Amino acid sequence: MTRIAISYVSTGLVFLALDAVWLTVMGRVLYLPALGPMLQQPFNMAPAVLFYLIYVAGIVFFAVEPAAQSGQWSTALLRGAVLGFVAYATYDLTNQATLKGWPVLVTMADLAWGTLVTGASALLGHVLSGVILGWLGR
């Protein structure tokens, strides 16, 4: 249980930090110009927090824990990248299918970002968890 909790917090901190940088930069450059009137101002914090809590659990379950069990960092990276691609594709392609004016550019950028950030978060969460568990002697 300790390993999972440490993996969850480690992965969550990495994902949140990377995504905060992305959203800060790309919010002005991509999302605001492309989605303008569709964006809720200010954004609704409760669903955002819920997303992060659920998504990080998914990263740990599908990528970080399998990597811990296999002892292979590449498992975290590959499984995280695949999870990110599938999750972000689900969101963006559904929006593309159901919302008028959903930009293809946003879909392409999100697919690339989701793949990258989830793979990197899984990998760094796995590595950081191992370091912390090593410090704790576990």
TrEMBL record:
Pfam families named among the record's database cross-references: DUF2177
Keyword Transmembrane on entry: yes
Residue ranges crossing the lipid bilayer per the database entry: 12-31, 43-64, 76-91, 111-136
Keyword tags: Membrane, Transmembrane, Transmembrane helix
Keyword RNA-binding in annotation: no
The organism's place on the tree of life at top rank: Bacteria
Coiled coil: none
Protein name: Putative membrane protein
Organism: Aquabacter spiritensis
